[in-house]
Recover the amino acids of this structure.
């Protein structure tokens, strides 16, 4: 494999397990969500999944070389209930995955169908662990909310706050602060039904530490907003190597339970 992991044939998902053994494990993400095998679980409906976020300005956005990531460590945020047991999870960061065209781009698929992209809001278990890094070493350490993107005519105002900063972080390693106020709640769809299963980070080292919660209802962004994502460069120097695609394809679900909540 090339020096660094990525999404090309030489360093992409098919070869990650050579350098990152966990990527070949039995609890990997994403998966194809086969809706006919999802079992509805009354416990999930009784113990509602709830979230409370802070509105913040000047959040830092950076080009990781694999996409953009907004650092949003919110000690005042809470994600709890649903599949999360008695524990409370706190928001750490959010980022997106997309594809070369809008016919692909999401990491999870639904009955074999890909969406144009997928937003991930990454949280860690503050009840049991002292830091994000520690939590990422444990099977119940992280909870990630996944939100699919559909392409439509109306630009998404909250995503536009991200898009308007991308020209300042074109190259890998660049970062800037987002002047607008961002409330992560506004990224979530209005319908709150979701699927949930136990999985992993979708990027190396692919730790098997994530309780995945994938919303059924997509949010809408425009083609132009996705075009702007694809203009980021994976390189730090002058060379332009556009990040046109940064999704891992579905991994086998195996004998893991896939549950649904119709909220
Ligand atoms: O791809 C992200 C990766 O960038 C990093 O943020 C990691 C958390 O440390 O999470 C993965 S993912 O599983 O949320 N895609
Ligand atoms: Zn992700």
């Amino acid at each position: 494999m090339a020096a660094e992991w990525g999404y090309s044939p030489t360093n992409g998902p098919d070869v990650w397990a050579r350098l990152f053994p966990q990527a070949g494990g039995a609890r990997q993400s994403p998966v194809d969500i086969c809706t006919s095998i999802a079992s509805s679980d009354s416990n999930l409906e009784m113990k509602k999944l709830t979230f409370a976020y802070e509105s913040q300005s000047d959040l830092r956005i950076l080009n990781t070389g694999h996409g953009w990531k907004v650092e949003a460590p919110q000690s005042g945020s809470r994600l709890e209930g649903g599949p999360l047991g008695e524990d409370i999870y706190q928001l750490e960061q959010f980022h997106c995955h997309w594809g070369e065209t809008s016919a692909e781009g999401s990491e999870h698929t639904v009955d074999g169908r890909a969406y144009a992209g997928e937003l991930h809001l990454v949280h860690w278990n503050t009840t049991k662990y002292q830091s994000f890094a520690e939590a990422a070493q444990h099977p119940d350490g992280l909870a990630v909310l996944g939100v699919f993107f559909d392409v439509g005519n109306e630009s998404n105002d909250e995503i536009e706050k991200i898009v308007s900063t991308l020209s300042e972080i074109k190259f890998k390693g660049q970062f800037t602060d987002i002047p607008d106020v961002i409330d992560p709640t506004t990224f979530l769809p209005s319908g709150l039904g979701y699927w949930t299963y136990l999985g992993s980070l979708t990027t190396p080292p692919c730790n098997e530490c994530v309780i995945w919660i994938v919303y059924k209802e997509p949010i809408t962004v425009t083609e132009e907003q996705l075009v702007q994502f694809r203009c980021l460069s994976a390189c730090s120097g002058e060379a332009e190597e556009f990040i046109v695609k940064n999704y891992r394809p579905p991994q086998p679900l195996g004998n893991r339970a896939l549950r649904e909540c119709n909220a």
About this structure: The longest strand covers residues 89-98. Helices lie at 16-19, 42-46, 132-135, 157-163, 223-229.
